[in-house]
Amino acid sequence: GDGNERNRQGFPEREPDGFPSGNVDGLAGFLRLNHRQKGACAPMKKKAFYRPELRTYVAHARMNEEEWKLFNSQAQKLGLSQSEFIRQAVFTAKVEVTIRPVYDSAVLDQIAAEYGKIGSNINQISRHLNEGNPFTAQLQKNLNHCLADLSQLKRKIEEMAGEL
Fold first, then answer.
1. Is the model's pLDDT at 24 over the cut of 80?
2. What is the pTM assigned to this prediction?
3. Cα–Cα distance measured from residue 32 to residue 11, given in angstroms and rounded to the nearest whole number
């Protein structure tokens, strides 16, 4: 060529002996080539421009020693600052959500017992009717009481669920 061939990074091509081919823009070009030959393979990363006006909130977290070591080692492995690691984790990490209901077992035991009694009453009414006995006003009254009790228990359970 004409001695001005450039590689993908824009530096002049080198001869097999390691010296630049053709014109290399003087001493500055030679030094740049020489530095690339001895230095890192890829150009240095551009430092992120910090603009504090974009980030005005600060988050704090307490960790035990094991969590702290894991946090720092993972951030270092990825080449991230602690802040950048946390920011990326916020948007990409999967978080396991565990819901632990808090309830009064005595109240639940009482509700279960009431359901049992109501179920027993409804079974007695069904058996009475299935034996061919007439549907009397007293049976209607008993059935209405059972349905009202079921409705009341349903409301209690919904109230308890709403408090969780």
1. no
2. 0.35
3. 8
104: which 2 tokens? 């009064």
C-alpha dihedral sign at 111, 113, 116, 120: negative
The predicted model gives 63-86 an average pLDDT of 91
- Identify the CA nearest to 1 among candidates 12, 10, 9, 16: 12
- pLDDT-derived band at 36 (thresholds 50, 70, 90) equals very low
**Exposure of 46 by Cβ count < 10 A (0-12 exposed, 13-18 middle, 19+ buried)?**
exposed
Report the alpha-carbon distance of residue 14 to residue 1 in Å, rounded: 12
Backbone angles phi, psi at 140, to 5 degrees: -60, -45
Other CB atoms within 10 Å distance of the CB of residue 20: 19
Tell me the β-bridge partners of 14. Answer: 20
Mean pLDDT of the chain: 75
- Rounded distance, CA 126 to CA 122, Å? 6
